Amino acid sequence: AAGPVHTVLVRGGENEVLVLSDPGYLAGGALTYRLWVDDAHLSIIQSIASPQTLVRGEDLRGVPGVAYGRAVAESQWHLVSGVSEADVFAPLRRMLWLIVVLVSALLIGVAAALFGTVLDTAEIRRKDEEIHYKNVEMERFTYGVSHDLKSPLWTVKTFLGFLEEDLASGADTAQIRKSLDRIKGGAERMSRMLDELLKMSRVGRQEDTPQEVCVRDVIQEALDAVAGRIAQRQVTVHVRDDSTMLYADPSRLMEVWQNLLDNAVKYMGDQAHPEIEVGSERSGRNTVFFVRDNGKGIPAESQSKVFELFERLDNEEDSTGLGLALVKRIVELYNGTIWVESPGPGKGSTFKFTLPAADLT
User: Which of 2, 12, 126, 348 has the fewest CB atoms found within 10 Å of its own CB?
Assistant: First the structure.
């Protein structure tokens, strides 16, 4: 919220304006301040000249701010409310600084969790190739974070500038609301990405106590979590009765199915009869779980990339490019593998994965 709002009652005249009440920031101002109507730099004078309009000017202290005035019916009196520019923009500036601090902290924490390891001399000799791979992945991770956060930060910065211009020019409320909505959208996108990064950093180092859980229950919980998106898109979901028992962290398992279901709905495309099938099948000694859809499908050349950090099939605003990478890390936590099968664009996709370290069957 903005800082203190000061409201003052004034009486307009042909050549001068008399302040009838204390402005709040200047005690004893009632009936002592007389302003000339040509003092156009004062927000009070601007509000009298342009009632019911957001104006930008100086208050009686000479402090820049914004004000809004309304005439009292059938009188020369006006009520003018104002707030300083510093108080108006302070919350937004604090939000931007907070985002910068959070991003910096997460970069350090996620990098340490994902790639940091202490190796003795013998391990270094045996793991040169692994270290090289991690260095490459670290470079990609750092580039991806900086690139993907730059876009919403730029949106926030740009529309803060527009908002200042709108306030200066006395733009209508609709235009100001549009700028605020774009700022809010950019902040929410950053928030989603920070949440995904936080989840990514916890995989493998923070886990609830493992317990026996039925896959049927995990799938139902995941469906409940994405029920709104499923209903909005009018997707029909078919769930095979799956009594497979797993020994794992239920919250981790739920993230796997929730992300795959959410991804299936998100990339359904313009399918007239969208459908998703969820279930499992036996393949040798392994249980293979799957989430199948009849949506956009994935080109063959992209199928090996979809699980990489910050990889997106298109420019979906709602996508962070981290969901499938998070799923892959959780699956690998249980010594499993995950892959996607798709005949091609427009022919749907099937995501399949195994969880051998958790499978009790």
Answer: 126
